[in-house]
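Holo prediction. Input below; ligand is calcium ion.
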Amino acid sequence: MNIVILAAGQGKRMHSNLPKVLHPLAGKALVSHVIDTARSLSPRKLCIVYGHGGDTVRTTLAAPDLGWALQEPQLGTGHAVMQALPYLDADGTTLVLYGDVPLIQPETLKKLLHAAQAGLAILTVELTDPNGYGRIVRNAAGHVTSIVEQKDASASQLAICEVNTGIMALPTACLGQWLAALSNDNAQHEYYLTDIVGMAVAAGLPVRTAHPAGEWEVLGVNSKVQLAELERIAQRLTAEQLMTQGVRLADPARLDVRGELVCGRDVFIDVNCVFEGKVELDEAVEIGPNCVLKNARIGAGSRLAAFSHIEDAVVGPDAVIGPFARLRPGTELAAGVHIGNFVEIKNSKIAAQSKANHLAYIGDAIIGSRVNVGAGTITCNYDGANKYQTIIEDDVFIGSDTQLVAPVTVGRGATIGAGTTLTRDAPPDTLTVSRPKQISIAGWKRPAKTKK
Ligand code: UD1
Ligand code: CA
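Structure of the complex:
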C-alpha cells in the first residue's frame, strides 16, 4: 500500500507566512498528525506532495521514511497525485490523504482500505450543509457513478448531501493511465482527482464508499477559525482518552495537551493546565489549577499547587510544589522536597526532604537532604561573566535573606545566620554569620521636615 499526502495548497485564508500544513494543532504540525496516522498503517511508500512554502515544509518534516514530490504550479488534486506517481510502488492500493485534514483516524482508514479491495473506495459523509464540497452522484441502484464539484454541479446535484471528503483509496495499477486521461475542462480549469471515479465506473470497477465515525474526522483547516475549532476537538479527544484511563479532570474542556501526557493511576488535574512536550505524572499526582508543565516528570503522590511552572525538570515522589513555584531546566528534586511560593530553581539537585518554602533563587546548586533554605535566600551564581556552583551538604539550615556567593560550600550540619553574605566556605556543624554587630543609639531623633 502507498500513501500520498496532498500538502501543496497555499492556504491563503490563513493569512500567515507559515505554510498552512505547518500550523500547530495540539502542539504538532497539522501534516504531522496525518503523517503519524499514515505511519500507523505501515505503508510501503509514504509520499508528501508539497509546493507552497516548499523548502520550509521539507526541512521541518524531514524523515528517512518520507518521499517528496514537488508540485509546482498547483493544477489540482489529480495533478498533485500525478507528481507522486514516480515515488510509488506500482501495485497494490494508493491511499490519498490531505495534509490539512489532521484528525482522520486509523480505524476509519482501515475501513476505507477494506472497501477498496475490489476497486476504488471513497470516504464520504452526509452533511446538512454540503456547500463547497464535491457531491457523490449515485444511480437508481445506489451505486456511485461520479463525483461532481460544487462549481460544476447542476441544481439537482447541488441538492445532494453526501459529499466527498477527498480521502480515497485507488488501485495503483490503473492510476497512471487514469491520471494521464484527466482534463482540466471544468469550471476551475483544474485536473480533478475526483474525475477518476467516472473512469473507474466506465472500466467496470466497483466503486465503494466508507464513512468516518464522526464528521470531525474529516474537517479541514482553511482558516484560523477552523484551526481553533479543531484544536478544541483534538483536546476533547485527549481529555476523553485520559479520563478513560482513569485520570480525573476538573473540567475536560479546560485542559491543553500540546504533546504527550502519560499518567499513572488516580492522577488529578485541575482546570487550565497546559502540558507541552513529554510530561509524565506518576500515580496519585495532583496538579492544581493554572499550572504549566513542559518536558517534566512528577513522582508518585506529589502535589503541585496553583500557578506552578515546570520545564525540563524532574520532581521525585511525595513532593509539595507551589503555589507560584518555578522549576527551570535541569532541576532535579528528590522525594519529599517542599518548594513554596516564588521560589525559582535552575540546574540544581535537591536531595530528599529538603525545603525552600518562600521567595528564593537556587541556581547551579547541589543541596543535600533535610536542608532548610530560609526565605529570601539567593545563590549568587553569576558574576556577570561566568557561572559557579553552590554546594549545601545534608542537614544544613540557611537563615533567611542569605546570599551564597558561588563558588561556595556549606558543610554538613552548618547553620548560616539570617542576613549572611557568604563569600567563603562555611565549616560543618558551626554557626556562620556575617553581620555587623547590632547597635542601638539612645536619644536619636528622626529628622523633621524643614519649614520654609
Ligand atoms: C477537494 C475535492 C472535493 C472535496 C473537497 C473536500 C477535488 C477536485 N475536489 O476540493 O470533491 O469535497 O476536496 O475538502 O479533488 N492540493 C494540492 N495541490 C493542488 C490542489 C490541492 O496539493 O493542486 C491539496 C490541498 O493542499 C488540500 C487538498 O489537496 O490539502 C484539497 O485541496 P482543496 O483546494 O482544498 O480542494 P477542494 O477544491 O476544496
Ligand atoms: Ca478544501
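Helices lie at 30-39, 54-61, 77-84, 106-115, 155-158, 172-181, 195-202, 224-244. That is the main takeaway for now.
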